[in-house]
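Write out structure tokens for FAD-binding domain-containing protein.
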Amino acid sequence: MEEVVIVGAGIAGLATAVALKKVGVRALILERSKELRTTGAALALFANAWVALDTLGVSDKLAALYAPFESGYMTDVKTKSIQEVHFLPNSRNGALPRAVHRKVLLEVLAEELPPNSIRFSSRITSMETQVEHGLSICIVTLDNGTIIKSKVVIGCDGIHSIVARWLGLRPPVYSGRSAVRGLSVFPKGHGFDHSHAIQQFVDVGKRAAFFTLNDKEVYWYFGATCPPKGVEKEADPEMTQREVMEDLAKDFPPVYLDIVKHSDLSSLTWAPLMFRYPWDILFGNLARSNVTVAGDAMHPMTPELGQGGCLALEDAVVLGRHLGDSFSKHGKLVSQCVGVAIGRYAKERRLRAATLVTASYLSGWLQQDGSSRLMRFLRDVFYGVLLARVVNGITDYDCGKLPSVSSLPSCASESSI
């Protein structure tokens, strides 16, 4: 019997476990892989993510390793025009965007948890709920036959979430775009003098970006409406790298091609970009009784606004905040409060998640699709007038603070599950 079971040890799962620890509840994380997964190599975390990390108590550890971004540049490959976006500090803590290694982020979060909080090689085969002594209990069965009963189950198991499927959410859909991601290493230093900026390049049906992580490492991204050739045959990384350099991105600036050339092939990945229809988030079952979802299990989205990981961190804090308010001073889950807390969490996250899924998809559509005069005009307006407002409006968000263990309110009844 567990207090809380979290399915998935990605950003959302680990951050949620940290949030729950801070409100006095230990969670068991079930991860199907043998170790922490680091697919994607790196990611940009915008100001709203740093507010969440500050609440979780880990922002200082990461900020000491990575410099903030003060601006971003968008270059039109055809016209060579450049638009600049200045990032505004978050109004709560003055945070600016920073790029981080995904592995480092996961490790920093995992270090905050008690020993044995993560059970690796644990693949869920089924879920069900039953009533025991008048109370709802979730039963999780693993592929090795282990049966775990839990008072709360939180699905943080990605775009193909078993928990989301159990809740009845429809599967994510293909956006029509695919992406290659990689980490490039320059042993003698990359020498970029614009290390505090995000560089992006757009062309019809294509979008690329890169940003520095430190003096020797650069993260890069390439998205297109057509996937690299041979991916259906699981092409090796070297073939995918060559396809990007010699075909898909051949007209992109030499500086970008040189970065792709220096890729650490072990970090290079290709994937179709999936998203959940926003109306499924607005009206679907994000929670049922003592079960809910967070991160990509709730709101998979395309990466144009860089908000996937940011929203996962927000989810963790908001969920911890609502569940924290349902715990007694002794750290026990109170039966009358758990379902209400989860319902409030889902209600709070619906509109923001659906809005950002929509904004990310439309941003990608404006950036990549179509070469007509109307689309070029819309792109110019978006880059020149709206992009900065959209990004700064999205990232100036406060996900709230967690209640301290000593100040947790008691429910009307102290009887616990």
